[in-house]
Amino acid sequence: MKKRGFLFLGISLLALGLSACGLTSNRSDAAALPDASKYEPTLFFHGWGSSTHAEEQMAHSLVNAGLTHTIIRATVSKKGKVSLKGHFREGDYHPIVEVGFEDNHNASSQQWGQWAKATVVKLQRTYHTKKFNVVGHSMGNMAIMYYLRNNNRSLPKLQKQVDIAGHFNGILGMNDEPNRMKLQANGKPEKMQADYKRLLGLRKTYPNQAAVLNIYGDKNDGSHSDGSVSNASSQSLRYLVSGRAKSYQERKIVGASAQHSKLHDNVKVDKLLISFLRN
Length: 279
Fold this sequence. Notes:
Strand order of the largest sheet: 3-2-4-1-5-6-7-8
Protein name: Cell surface hydrolase
Shape: globular
Oligomer: single chain
GO molecular function: hydrolase activity
Keywords: Hydrolase, Signal
Signal peptide: 1-30
Radius of gyration: 21 Å
Order of helices and strands: HEHEEEHEHEHHEHHEH
CATH superfamily: Alpha/Beta hydrolase fold, catalytic domain
Helix content: 25-40%
Structural class: alpha/beta
Number of strands: 8
Strand content: 15-25%
């Protein structure tokens, strides 16, 4: 009995030790970084049915350009639990966070926005993040917009937003057709889809310290689209943010490589991204 008691005590102490190590590891991420609040991560959000694989070329283009040497990965479960793989490096103030949603076939823009928030909150708790940038492709843009729609002042402050192939006011074949959507002079769509209407509140709440770069593709085949999203749908972002954003600019990519799913692997997009984030 005495031998069994010692064995139980040993196992208990080992478990306690491992638990303590785990707590130390979680607490030390920010504690190990001097001036943790100076770090300004750039979060990449992929599109519907996609993954962090779609973010890799853009992320590595930033590394190759010397903007950072750090790429970590944030995986968000269906229930919104965020796990981080990798760590911020001391002195590398502009790390990249490749965000991956496990439930990537979920059709709810609002749900994607909640997952985006969970990711930002995780970084805030882990690294004491005060400010950040975002890059979205396709549905990833809706994750960003719905995050901002439900934002609150206690969360880190958005500095720069890059939208690529955004379907802010509809998708071809679903609620839009080539050359059908019309925009007024101020960028306001003549007909608004449900998701777009839900985002109209951003005209009064969009963070005024944030600069926006809107990149969209035109296959140059007469459809004025990237094959999945009309240029007008992408450009409708202007009406939602330009009245409050620090700055707003649009860039059109033309040709076969401007197709919707090719834009995140487009060298011209990489160059725009590098220039915008660097400056």
